[in-house]
Amino acid sequence: MAEPLLSATGLIKRFGGLVATDNVSIDVRPGEIHALIGPNGAGKTTLVSQLTGNLRPDTGTIHFAGRDITHLPMHARVRLGLARSFQITSVLREFTALDNVALAVQAHAGHSFRFLADTRRDESLRAPARRGLEAVGLPARANTPASALSHGEQRQLEIAMALAGDPKLLLLDEPMAGMGVEESQRMIGFLQGLKDRRGMLLIEHDMDAVFQLADRITVLVYGRAIASGTPAEIRANAEVRQAYLGEGDA
Ligand SMILES: Nc1ncnc2c1ncn2[C@@H]1O[C@H](COP(=O)(O)OP(=O)(O)OP(=O)(O)O)[C@@H](O)[C@H]1O
């Protein structure tokens, strides 16, 4: 089995008296989708924020691509190949889909200033941007302003922007939120297409999507990882069914 790309061990994060992350260990292997599920307030966002460097754990260690990144700032983690969709980049609504991804490519290439003029003529920015749009199924919308994209297409665009730096690991925070059934199915197809090449940690409330996509699932309840395993193992886990999935949902 492949060595984990990301490996967090014994993470604890307290907010006053609340233990939001209660001794959680989790890992993501290359080429796998590991889903993190749990009810509202279970601590999913708090955990992911520690992985990205938005929050410092009180205790515990995080290794990524063979390095201890526990004390590295967010931008250094991004540079190592740890990307979070929806938060490291922001869509400029009046610019086209291609311009947005080209700007993200430019930012990842380490330019301290971002010039739209460059992204419009520099083929070294536009070629990877086109590939990003293709990877998420948006090539036909390259010249459409971001503001004219449907909700689902905007989320696809955000993922294309997160892919701009060719990350080894992508943290996806509810990519299916607000999508209809058809859009969700399309997104599931794109994510399946991306996973051969990189690891993904997926936070998602849509259980159909989670059970279709995930290779492994970890269930958080009150900050604790109560179970971790394959979708079949999670479905069959009595504690999970009782604490979270409920009869009929799993
Ligand atoms: N900065 C903070 N200060 C104090 N408490 C916080 C802070 N951030 C989160 N919490 C608390 O930590 C707990 C976990 O919150 P978190 O947002 O991580 O859960 P979640 O599983 O992501 O929830 P949701 O599914 O609703 O997004 C909650 O009780 C929340 O109120």
Automatic annotation (TrEMBL):
InterPro entries: AAA+_ATPase (IPR003593), ABC_AA/LPS_Transport (IPR051120), ABC_transporter-like_ATP-bd (IPR003439), BCA_ABC_TP_C (IPR032823), P-loop_NTPase (IPR027417). Pfam families: ABC_tran, BCA_ABC_TP_C. It comes from the Bacteria. Transmembrane segments: none annotated. Keywords: ATP-binding, Nucleotide-binding, Transport. This is ABC transporter ATP-binding protein. Residues 6-247 form the ABC transporter domain. The keyword Lipid metabolism does not apply. The lineage of its organism: Bacteria, Pseudomonadati, Pseudomonadota, Alphaproteobacteria, Hyphomicrobiales.
